[in-house]
Fold these 3 entries.
Entry 1:
Amino acid sequence: MSLLPCSSITPTLSQPIQTRATTNPKPYTVLKFMFPSRKGNLQEAFRSFTALFSDTRNLHLLDSDDVFAPLLELCAISKAASRGRQIHAHMIKHNVVSSSVFLSTKLVFMYGKCGSISDAEKVFEEMFERNVFTWNSMIGAYASNEEPLRALELYRRMRVFGVPFDSCTLTCVLKACGAVEDIRCGSEIHGLAFKCGYDSSVFVSNSLVAMYAKCNDIDRARKIFEGMNERSDVVSWNSVISAFAINGPSIEALRLFREMRNIGVLPSTYTYVAALQACKDSSFRELGMEIHASILKSNQLNDVYVHNALISMYVRIGKMRKAAVIFYKLHKKDDVTWNSLLTGFIQHGLFFEALQFFYKMQEAGLKPDQVSLISIIAASGRLGYLLNGKEIHAYTIKIGLDSNSQVGNTIIDMYAKCCCMTYAGRAFAKITCKDFISWTTIIAGYARNDCYIEALELSRQVLINGMELDANMIGSILLACSGLKCFLKVKEIHGFSIRHGRSDLVLQNSIVDAYGECGNINYAARIFESIEWKDVVSWTSMISSYVHNGLAIEALEVFYTMIDKGIEPDSITLLSLLSSTSSLSTMRKGKEIHGYIVRKGLIFDDSLSNALMDMYARCGNLEEAYKIFTGTRSKSLLLWTTMINAYGLHGHGKEAIELFYKMEEQRVSPDHITFLALLYACSHSGLTHDGKRFIQIMKSKYQLEPWPEHYVCLVDLLGRANHLEDAYHFVKSMRIAPTAEIWCALLGACRVHSNKELGEIAAQKLLDLNLDNAGNYVLVSNVFAARGKWDDVEDVRLRMKGSGLKKNPGCSWIEVGNQVHTFLARDKSHPESSKIYQKLGQIIEKLKREGGYVANTKFVFHNVAEEEKVQMLYGHSERLAITYGLLATADGTTIRISKNLRVCGDCHNFCKLVSKFFGRKLVMRDANRFHHFDGGVCSCGDFW
C-alpha cells in the first residue's frame, strides 16, 4: 500500500477540523433529555424517549444531539441493531441526519458495533461532510467485523482525500494489518506513527504489539513493549501477554504475567484469560493451578469469560474433573461455557459422557449451536451410536445446518464410523459448498467400509474437478485399490504420487501396506527399503505385509531388526506380531512378546488382551489364554467371543456353552460372531442338540438373522454326528441358496462316514458352483478317489489346473529352541533328514510290535500300488515333525506341532500310539482344531 508523506496530512491551524461546534450550531435549548447513563437500561431509555416524543410541543425545545447521541451509544454497547434502526428512522423523520456530521458519525459507529456493515456503509456514503471521527468509525467497523481488507482500502481512500488522521485511525488500521498478517503494511504504519509522534500513545503502542504478534514477529512485539515509557497500563500488559500466549513461547507469557503482578499492576479479566490461554498442555499444570489460585483471590471470579478460560485450561491440561467442578459451580453459563466442557469430553475420549452432557444441555433449555452439534455428532460416531447420530442429523436438517460444510463433513465421518455409507453418501450430496475435506472424508469412508468402487469413482471426480490430491486422499485411494487386490491400480497410484511429488513418509507407508495387501511382497519390501527415515509405522507396515502373506518367520525377523535399530514397537506392531506367532503356533516367541508388553508397561486394552488370548489359544495353551481372560476386569464382547472360540478350538464345547451363559448373566449381548464361535464349539464337540437350540435362540431371543456361515456350522454339526440325511434335508430346505462352504461341509462329512451316494450329490453340487478354492477341488477329488473313479479324479484335477489353482502341499512345523522347523510331505531338505527318517523307522517298528499299528491306506487318494500308499503315509509331514520333536527335545517335554491341512485318520492313530508308547504329550493344531494326545487318547474323542 502506498502511503502519503506525513507532512502532507498533518493537521495545521490553517486547516479547520470539522467538529460538532463548527458544523451544526444549535440554538439555545430550553428542555434537556434526561438520559439514564451509558450503563443504563435500554428499555428504560426507550420509555423515556417515547414519552418525550409523544408531546409534539417538546420537539422544538429539544437538542437533537443530546437526545439521539446517548441512545445510539447505548444501542452500540448493547448491540441492539433493531433499536438503532428505530432511532435512525426518528432522526430521518425529524431531518437531523443530513444536518449533523456528529449524529451521522454516531450512526456509523452504532451500526459498526452492531455488525450491520451494509447500514454503516450506506450512512457513510450518503454523508456530504465527514470528519476524522467519521472515517475512524467506518474503518473501525470494517476492522471489527472481519473485513480487514476493506478497512485498509478505506484508509487508503482517506489518505488520498487528504483527511487528517489521529492515533485512533492508526489503531484501527494496525488491527486490520494484524488480521490479514500484512507485516509490510503494518511496518509502514509503524513508521508513520513514529514520524508523526503517535508512537508514544499507549493505544498505538498496544496496537503495534498486537499487530506484530499476529504477524508472528514476537521479537518486535517484545521490543515495542519494552520500549514503552509507561508500563502501568494493564492494556499494554494484556497485549504483550496475549501475543506470547497465542504465538508463543507460552512460558514467556506466564513470565510476563508474573512480572506484571510483581510491579503492582492489577490483572484484568483479559489478563487472566490470556494467561490461562498460555497453559497449553499438561506440562503447564502447576502454573495453571497457580493462576486459578490468583483468580480466587481477585474479584474476577464471577466473570463468565474467566470461568470459560479456566474450564478450557483444565481441559487442555487433562484435568476434566476440575473443569467439571468449575462448570457445575457456575450460576451464569453461556454457550461457550457448555461447549468448552463438551469439546473437552470429546478430546479426552469420554464420548459417552459427552453424549450425556449434551442431553443435559437440552434439559437446561439451550439450543445446540454449530460447535455443540459438531462435537456430539463426532461423539456418536466414535461410540458407533447410529441411532443417536441419525437423531442429531435430523435436527441439523430441521434447522438447515446439514448443508454447512463443517457440520456435513462431521456427519459423513459419523456415518462412516457407524458403517452406514448409504446415509454418508446422502449427507455428502446435501453439502452446498463441498470443500476438500468433504471429498477426503467421503472417499476415506467408502474405502474403510469396503465400498472400493465408490471410493475410486469419487476420486476420479476429484481429478475431473481440478482438485489436487493430497497424501491423505491418495492413502484412501490406495486402501480401495488394495481392497480390490488390484496390483496394477496400486502401481498406477504409486507412479502418480511420484510424478506429483507426493512422497511423504505417511504415503510411503501406505504404499508398503497396499503392495502387501495385493500379495506383491517383493514390491512392498523394495519400497520399505527405500524409505530413508523409517518410523514405527513403516516397520509395522512391513511386518503386517509379511503376516498377511503367510510369511510369519520373515515378519519376526523384521521385528528383531526393528528392535536392533532402537525403534520402540507400538500396540499395532505387537498385534501384528502376535498374529504371526499365532499362525506359526510358536508359543516361545509369543511369550517373549507378552513379556515385552509387561516390561514396557503397555496398557492391556481390548485389542491387545484379545490378541494375547488368541495367541495362547492357537499355540495350544488354553490355560494361559483363560488367565488373561479372567485377569481382565472390564470384559468386552470381543473378549468373551474370543474365549468361547478358544474353547471350541480345543474341543471344549460344554465349557464354551457355560461361558456363554456367564456372558449373558453379565448383560453382554452376543452378536453374529459370538454365535458363530458357539456353533463352531458345538460342532467340534458333537453337541448336536445344543447347536440346533442356539440357532433358535439367535433368531428368537436376539433377533439375529443367521449368516451363511452359521448354516455351514449347523450342516457340519449334523454331518459330524452322522445325521447326514438331516443335514441334506436342512440344506435343501434353506431359504437362501446353499453356498460352496455348505456343500463342502456336507461333502466332508459324507467322506468321513463313507456315505458315497450322498457324497457324490454334494460333490456335483460343489463342482456346479465354479469353485475358486483349491481345497474344495481336492475334497471332491478325494471323494471320487475313495470310490475308485480315477477318470473323474483326473477330470477334477484338470478343471482345477485350468482354473489356475494349485493344491497346497501338506506342511507341518515345530518350534524347537528359538527356531521354527518346517516339513513338507516326504521332505528330505532338513539338515538332520537322515537321522529323522532313521528315527521314524524305529518308531513305526515299535508301534507295529507293541501297539499293533497297521497303516490304513484308505486315506491315500492316489492311483498307486498298495506298498507305495503305505510309504506315502509314512512320509506325511506331521510324522516328520513329531519325529524331530522326539529327537530334539528332552524326555517328558510336550511336543507341539502345527499342520496346514486336516490331519488324516491314519496319522491321528499314529499320534495316539506315539503318546502312549513314548510317554509324550502331543499337541497338534490342524486346519480345523486342536488335538491333545495323551496316553493313547485324543481330546477330540476321534470326532474331528
Entry 2:
Amino acid sequence: MSAEAADRVAAVASSRPSTPLQTSWFEFLLDGSLLEKHLKKANPDPTPVQLIVQFLEQASKPSVNEQNQVQPPVDNRRNRTLKLLALEVAAHMKWDLDVLEKGLTIPVLNMLLNELLCVSKVPPGVKHVDLDLSTLPPTTAMAVVIYNRWAIRTIVLSSFPEKQTKPGPHQMNVINILQQEKEMTENILAVLKEQANDSISVLEGALQLKKDFYVHTLRTLDLLAADTAANGETESSTAGLRISADELHCQVHYDVGGIFFHQGCTDQTAYQKARDHFRQTKDLLKKLDSTVHVHLDEKRLAGYWNACKALTEDCDSDSQTTAYDQINSLIRAHNYQAVIEAFIRDNVTHSLPNHFRQSVLREFLYKVQQGESGLDEVCHKLCICNAIRDSLEGEVLSVRFQQLLLKPNKWMVDFILEVCTLSLEKEHLSETLRRKIGNFIKTLCENLEELPLLFVVSSHKLFIELLKEEERKVLMEQMRKKSATINLSAKPLPSFFDIPASATVNIGQLEQQLILLLEPRKIRQTLIELHGLAERSYWKVNNKWEVPPDYINVILSIKDNLTKDLVYILMAKGLHCISIKDFAHARQLFTACLKLVTEFSPKLRQVMLNEMLLLEVRAHESMTAEGSKERPPPDLVSRVRGYLEMRIHDVPLRQVVGEECVTFMLNWRENDYLTLQVPPSLVMNNPYIKLGQLLASTCKELPGPKESRRTAKELWEVVVQICSVSIQHKRNSDGRLSLIKHRESSMGILQRSKFITFIKKIREPLVLTTLISLLVRLHSIVRDDIVNEVTAEHLSIWPSSIPNLQAVDVEAVAVTVTELVSYALTLNSNNQSWLITQADIYFVTNQYSAALNIYLQAGAVCSDFFTKVVPSDVYSDQVLKRMIKCCSMMNCHTQVAVLCQFLREVDYMTAFKALQEQNSHDAMDSFYDYIWDVTILEYLTHIHHKRGETEKRQIAMKAIGQTELNTSNPEEVLQLAAQKRKKRFLQAMAKLYF
C-alpha cells in the first residue's frame, strides 16, 4: 500500500465514532468498586440481566479433574464472589421480579433466588412453610417472601402459551443446550407446582405481619462479602432497603390473587379467594402515596377484578359500578332486554370495548347450544347491535351478521332500523358517523332479496336522510329489477282492480280459482262456468297438472270435453295431494273421480280403483314411517292380494302400483302369500313381483339348512344380472371389435336405478339384511381383496364365485351396496350389524375417520353407551384391528396403543411402534389413565425417560403405580380394572368422534 493510501485509510478510520469495548465479567472480580460504577451508567453494556447470566454461568461451570472427569462446580472464593456479584446486580434492580422474569430464564432465576436464600441464612433443609417469619431476621424473612412470590408467579406465567424459539442453524450442541434447558425448566416447574400450596401459606403468613420489611442492598451484600456479618449489622432490624408493610402486602395480595385466579378453572371457590386478594390490592393502592416497591400492572389488576366479580357474582362491589359490572349483573338477573338496551346505548357512548361485546354474544350463543330456550331472538338482537357498532367504527361486518341477513324477516329489519336511529341520537354528531350508518343502510339494501322488506328500508327516514340522491336512485333501480322477477302468480297490485271487468277477466279469475280449489263439487261448478264462457281444454290451464303416461290416452279419448277436463283435473290434483301427504283431500278427489267414471268407463273405473289402492297403501306406510305400530286392516291386505292376482285384460297398469303392493307385503311379512299364491303369469310379467317372491322365499328359508336355500341362488343371479352391463365390447381373433349381448333372464333386465327405488320402499329388517348380505358378498367377489372385505350377516348362503365376472359393473355394485346400507341406517340407526357393515365400507374405501365413528357407534348401541361390556361378536379381533388401523392412519398413535390391549392377545409390537411415534395428533398423555397393561406402561416410562420428557414420564409412572394394576392382585381385580378402563376409554373416544 502506498503512503497516500495508508493516510487515507487512517483518516477515514479516525473520522468514525469509536464503539466502547464491552466490560468483561472477570473485570468485576479484579475491581470491587467497578460494579456500582457500571450499574450507575445510563445504558450499561452489558445490561444488568446480562451480567447476572454471565456471573452465574461462570460460577456454575463444571470443573475437570486430573483423570479428565467432569466434576460439579468448585465451592471456592471465586465462585462465591461471582454469585454475590449476581445478587448485587439484582439488589441494584431492587428485586423487581417483573424485570428479572423478562430478562432471565426460569433455571437462571431459580439459581439466583436460591443463592439469595443461602446468603440470607435461611435454615437449610427446613420447609419454608414451617418457618415463623416473625422470628427471622428482616432480610432472611424477605428472602423467603421473594422466593415464594417468584414461585407462584412462575406457575401462573408458565400456564400462558408461548411461541417456541427457534435455535437457528442446525447445530447439535445448540439443540442439546436447548433440550437441557427445557428439561431443567420442566423439573423446576414440577417442584414449584408441587409446593404451590406451601408457597401460598408462606405468603399468607407474611400478610399477617404488620412490621416493616428490609431487603438486601449492594451495601449489605458487600458487608457479607467482607465477612463483617459477625457484628450483626446485616441481621439488624435496620439493615437493607426498607419496604413498608403496606407496600409488601399490596404486592403479595396481587401475586397471591393471581395464583388463586389460575386455580379457579379447577376449583370454583378459588375465584372468591382471588377476588378478596385483589380487593385488598386495590384498597392498599389507594392508601399508598407512592409505590416505589410495588410492581404490578394496574390494567391487568382491573381485568382480574372485573373477571372475579363476574365469576363470583359479587354484589357488594364498588359504589361506582362500571359498565362491565352493569352488564354482568343484568345477565345474572336474566334481564336480557336490559342488556340489549345497554348495547344500544353503548353504540352512542362507546364505553364498552368491542371484544367485551363479542364475548357477551358468545356467552348467549353458548347458552343456546346448551339447550336454553327463548334466547335465539336475544342472540339475533345482540348480533345486530354489534354489527352497527362495527359499522360506526369502520370495521368489517361479522360473518354471523351476514348469515343473519340470509334469512331476514320484518321484525329483524325493523329492529335494525330502530338501532340505527338510536345510535345516531347524539349531539353534534359528526358527518363521518352519519356516512358510516348510511353505508350500513346501503349494504342492508344490497343484501335483502325480498321486495316487501326492501320497501320497509326505502321508506324509512334514514334512507332519505343518510343516502345521497344518486345512491338512492341506484338502489331504487335495483329494487325495480328485483320486482320484475317476482312470480306472476303473486298477489296483483292494487291498481289491477281498477280495470273494468270483462269476459277475459272473468275467465282468468275462474282459471285461477280452478287452480286453487280442492273440493270436487266446486271444481265441477267452476269448470261448468268456464265451459259456459268459452269452449276450450281447461286441463291445460296449469302445466303442473300431470297424470301418469299410462293413463293419458284413455282419459283424452273421452269425447265430452267437460268430463275429460274434470277426470283429468281430479286425478292430477289427487296425485299432487298424495305427493304432499294430504291423503284426506286425495281420497275426496279420487272418490269423486271414481263415481264419475263408473257411469261410462269400466276401464277407467279399474284404473281409479288401482290408484285408490295405491293411495291407501301409501297412507298406511306414511303412518308407519311416523311411528305408528298399527298393522294394516284386513280389508287393505285383501285388496292388495286382489291386485296381485288381477287378470283383467286391456286395463292400463302402472308398474309402481305392483311395486308398492309387493313392498307392502314384504314390510308386513306376508311371505307365505308372495311365495305360494301369486299367479305365475304375473310373476313373469312384473319384475317387482318376481323380486318380491324371491326375497320372501329366501327370508323364509334363512333359518333352515344350507342345502334348502335354493331360491337364494336364483335371487343372487337376478341381482347379479341387474348389476351387470347389458352390452360388452369384445375383440375377435382378427382384431376387430364386436358387440355381444348378454342373455336376459326370464324376468328381463331391471335398471339399477329402479332396483334402488324398489329397495328404498322396503322397511322390513330381515329383507334389508338379506339384500345387504347379498350385495356385500357380491361386492367382495368383484373387488377381490381378501384383506379388506366388508362383513355382513348370512354371507354363507350366497355363491362364492361368478361365472362371468367381467360382465359385472364393479362401480354399480359398490354404489348399490353403499346406498342400501345408508338407507337401512336411516330406518334404524342402532342396528349393530348394519353399522359394522357401514363402517367396513368406509374402511375399505380409506375413509378412516368416518369408519372409526361408525365402529364406535356400533359398540355404543349394544352396550348402553359403553356402560356394559361390548359383545365379542361386535368388537371381534377383526373389527378391533380395523379400529387400530383407523387411528394409526389418522396419526392418533396413543389411541392405537390403548386399543392394542383390547385384542384377545395384546399386540405389543404394534403398540410399541405406535408409542415410538412423536408426531401424534391425539391427546397423548391424557390417554395414559386408560392403559391397564403394565408392559405397555413400562415401555412408556422408558420412552419418555429416553427422550427427557419428564412430565409425561411422571404421568406414566403415576398410571403404573395404581394399586389395582399390581400384577400380584387376583385375576378378578385385574379384570375389573381392565373393564373400567375399557369403558372410560371408549366413552372418551365416542365424545371425540361423535
Entry 3:
Amino acid sequence: MEPPSNPGDSPVELEFTVENVESALYQLYFDPDMERKNVAQKWLTQAQASAQGWHFCWALLGPDKLPEVQFFGASTLHTKISRNWIDLPTDQHESLRMQLLSHILHFSSGPKMVLTRLCVALAAMALHLIPQAWSQPVADMVRAFQPQKPDSEGAEPTQEPHAHCLALLELLTVLPEEFQSSRLAQARRAQLREALAGEWVVVCPLLRQLLQSQDSSVQVKEKVLRCLSSWVGLDVPLGESHELVQDCFPALSNPELFDTAVETIVNAISQPDCQRYTDALVNLMPLVLGLHDQLKTAAQDGDMETSHGICRIAVAMGETHSRVLLEQVEHWQEYLALVNMILFCTGIPGHYPVSETTSSLTLTFWYTLQDDILSFEEEKQAIYLQVYRPVYFQLVDVLLHKSHYPSQEEYASWSSDDKEQFRIYRVDISDTLMYVYEMLGAELLSNLYDRLGRQLMDPQQSAVWQDTEALLFGFQSIAETIDVNYSDVIPGLIGLIPRINISNVMLADTVMYTIGSLAEWLADHPVMLGGILPMVLQGLAKPELSISSVSTLKRICRECRHDLGPYAQDILTVSQDVLVKEIHKSSQCMWLMQALGFLLSALPVEEILLRLHSLITPHVQQLDSLSQQEANPATKASIIHILGMLSSLFTTLDIRQADGLEGASSPRLTPSQSAHNPVVVVLQQVFTLIQTILSKWLDDSEVVEAVCGVFDKSVRTLLHDFGPMVAQLSEMLGQIYSAFPQSSALDLARQMVHIFAGEEQHISDIKSLIEVLTSATLTIFQQGPRDHPDIAESFMQLHAQILKKKPDVYLSDQLDVKALFYCGILSLKFPETPTVKAASLFFTELLPRCKDAPSLGEVLQRDGKILTETILHAVGGGSPRSLTEHFSDVLLSLNRHCPALLAQWLKETLQSPGFPSAQVSTEQKHNFSQQLLREQTNKRRVKEIVKEFSLLCRGLQGSGY
C-alpha cells in the first residue's frame, strides 16, 4: 500500500480514516526517512486522540491486517478507554465489553503483543466500572474463557482451551498492573483496591488448581506464577494466599520455571503486611529450609543462578520477618536453621563478583538480625545472644575469608569493573564488621589479634599473605570508626605490624591503612611511634603505595604532631626525597605537604623556619627557573603544581594551633617577642618571584588563581599573623586586577577585608585596595558584565563583606555608591544562581545601613523603585523559579527597613497592566502586596508568599509544583 505523501498535510477531520491510519503506520515502520517517520508518529498520536479513534481501532484489528497495524488498533482502544472514557455513552458499555472479550478470545493464539494490549484495554475498562457497574469482573472473565463444550472421551483435545487459559491468565495478570499504573484520585484508588482484593477469593482457587494440575503446561504454570506476583502487589493477605505460595515451591525444581518462581515467592513473602500472619510464615519455613540441599548442590556445581535465587528467598524470609520469627520461641530451632542457611550463602565458595554474586545479598540481613536482637529487653536479649553470638563469630570468619584477594596472577586478569565491584564489596564487608563489633565487643578484637599472632609466628601460615591481609582488614574496619583506645590488644598489634613482610602491594596497602586507623591511639601512646613510623616512611618511597602511605602519614602528623619532634628529621628527609624524585601524583603531593604542615606546626618556632627553608628551597628554585622559561602548557602545569604544594603546606602550618596545647615541644614566643610568623617570612622572600610569574601569566586565570590560592590559604590559617604582608599584597592585588580582572583576586580581597578591615594599621591599605578593585569592576559593568558571572558574583560577595565588617568605607567620596547599587541590580538579573545569591546578600547587607549613611539613603530613595521592579520581574517569570527564595530575602529586608517606600513602589510598579505577568489579575497583585507588607519578621512566611505569587505569575498554581 502506498503511504500518503504526508499524513499531516490535509484537514485533520478528513484524515483519520482507516486507510490513512494504515498508510501512516507503513510510513512509521517502513519508511527509511527519519523526518517522515516523525511526522507519521505525530499524526498517529493525534489520530489516537480523535473521536474517530473509537471507530477505526476495530477495523485495524481485522484478521487480514499486519501485526503492527493490529497492535496500533489495540493501543488506540486502550488510549480511548483510559483517557476518553467519558465520551462513550453508558448504553454502549456492555457492547464494548462483549466486543473486547470476543477479540481477546480471537487473539488468544497470538500475536502476543496484540493480545496483551487488548487485555490491558479490558483491564482499563474494568477499572472504570468496578464495583458499581461491574460487580464481579473476575468471575465474569473466568466464565467467558471456559471451554464452550467439553471434549468427548478419547477425542483429540483442541488447542483452544490451552490458548484460552493463557489469555485468561494474561488478563488476570494485567488487571492489578493496570490499577497500579493508573492515575486515580486517592478515594477512588482506595475503593478500587478494596474491590479488587475482594476478587482474590475467585482468583486464588483458580491459580491453585492450575498450578497443581498434571495437565497444566509449563507455559500455563509460568503465567500462574506471574499472575500471583501481580496480585501480591495489591497487598492480598498472606493469610489467604499462603497455600498458593506453598504450591509455588515445587516449581523451583523445574529449570524452566525457576527464575519466575523465585521472583514470585520473594514478592509474596517480602510484603511487610505478612508479619500479621505468623502461622502462615511458620508454615512456609520448612519449605524454605527444604531448599538447603538444592542450594548446596548448586554451590558445589558453580551454578550461580540457582544459588542466587534460593539465597534471595532465604534472605527475604529472614530479613523481612526477623523480629516476628525470633519471637516464635517454640520454633527457635527452625529460625536458627534459616540463619545458618543464610550464613552458608554469605560464605558461598568463589570470589565475588567473578565466580559468585550471591554473598553480597546477605549483608543487610546481618544488620537487621542484630538490630532486632539488641532491641529486646535485657533478659530476653541475653537468651538470644547466647544462641546467636557463636553464629556472629562464625560470620566474622566467613566475612574475612570472603574479603580475601585472589592470587596476584588471577587478580591481574580481572577487568577494572570487577576490581571496582570487589573494592565496593570489601567496603560493605568492612561496614558489616564494624557493626558486628557492637554485638561481640572486645572479644572480637582479641580473637583477631590471637589469630594474627599465630599466623605471623608460623612461617608456613604467614606465607599466605591473603590471610594476614584479611585479619588486618578486619582490624582496620573496626578501628576506623570505633574508639579502640581502651582495647588491650592494640599494643600487641602495633608490636606485630613491623613483623609483616610488605613485599605484596595489597597487603602493604592494608598495613598502611591499619596504621592510619590507629593514629588517634598512637597520639595517646607516643612511645609506640618509633616502631611503626619506619614502615610508613618505607611505604612512602613506593609509587604503588602512594595513596595509602601518604594518607597514613598525614593522619599521624595531624594526630601525633606534638610527639613527632624526635622523628621530624627522618620524616622531612624521606618526604623531601620523594617530592624531588616526583614519586607521587599531584594530589598526593598536596596531601604530603599538608602532613608536613602539621608536623612543622608543632616544632619550636626557631626550628620551623630552618626546616621550612630546606623543605621548600628546591621547589622555589624550580619555580624560579620556570619563571624564566617560555610560556607553554608544560611550564604552566609545573607552576600550578608548585604553587598548589605551597598552598597545601600553608593550609596546615599553623603555629597558633599548637599554642596552649599539652605536649607542645617548647614554650611559644608571643608575636612581640618573636620575629614574623615563619610562613610570612617565606612569603616575603618569594614575593618578587611570584610577581615575576604573574607578569608573564597575568592573562591566565588558572595561574592567577593558583597564586591567589597561596595567599588565601595563608591568610585563612594565619589570620592576624598575616598582618606584615597586607600592604604589599594589597598593592599587588590592585595592580594585577586593574591589568586583568579575575574573580580569584576579588575572593582573596574579601578574605583580607574579613580579617583586617577592623585593624587600624591596615585600614588605609584595605580602603585603597577596595577603591582600586571597585573602580576596575565598574568599568566591566559599564562595558557589559554578562560574560563575567564569576566576577559579578565575587564583586557582590566582596561588597557584602565590606558592608558587614567595615560599612564606614561607604562614607568615602571615592566610592560611587549609585554605580554600586546599579551593579547589584544588574547582578540580580543574571541567570546563574551563585551570582543572584551574592547580589541578594549584597542588598540584604546594604539596606539596614541606609539610615546611617546619607549617600546610601539617597540612592535608595531614588533607585529603590528600580530594585523593586527588578525583583518583581524576576519573581514573575524573568528568572528561574529556584531563585525565588533569594529575591524574597531582599523583599523582606526592604519591608523591614523602608516599609512606607516599599508600599509606594509596589503600588506604582504593580499597577502597570501585564506586569510582572499577564497571568495575574489586579486583585491577585493587590493581595500579594498586602500579604507581603504585613510581614516584617517572618522569613519563612515571606518565602511562601513570594513563591505562591511566582507560581501564579507562571500559570503553575495548583499544577502540583
